[in-house]
């Protein structure tokens, strides 16, 4: 018998639909983390949802910033679910994504409206 994992069995006893969801979830997790590891900047958009996965990406971005590999880790939106990492010194808080992008343009000396 194969070892059980969180996605190997559903309560009804049918493995296949749950296994497919697990494979899909693994692909999404890999793509999301790969994107953070390749990004020039990371923008986390907060919402009313608990954002459990968001904290993984934020943590990866902060690790890259600590290693000197990432300059911009930005958070946009009101904080509804507290995490100490939202207050990390590397994180900058913004009212909107547009405000953050405008700050990048100003830092690069770009003219814009």
Give keywords:
single chain, 113 residues, alpha/beta, three-stranded parallel beta sheet, 43% helix, globular
Describe, in plain words, how this protein is organized in 3D.
The protein is α/β, with parallel strands linked by helices and 113 residues long. The protein contains three helices and three strands; from the N terminus they run H-E-H-E-E-H. A three-stranded parallel sheet has the order 1-2-3. Helix 1 runs parallel beside helix 2. The N terminus is likely disordered.
Question: What layout of secondary structure does this protein have?
Answer:
Blueprint: H1 16-38, E1 41-45, H2 52-66, E2 72-76, E3 91-94, H3 97-107
Parallel strand pairs: 1-2, 2-3
Helix pairs in contact: 1-2
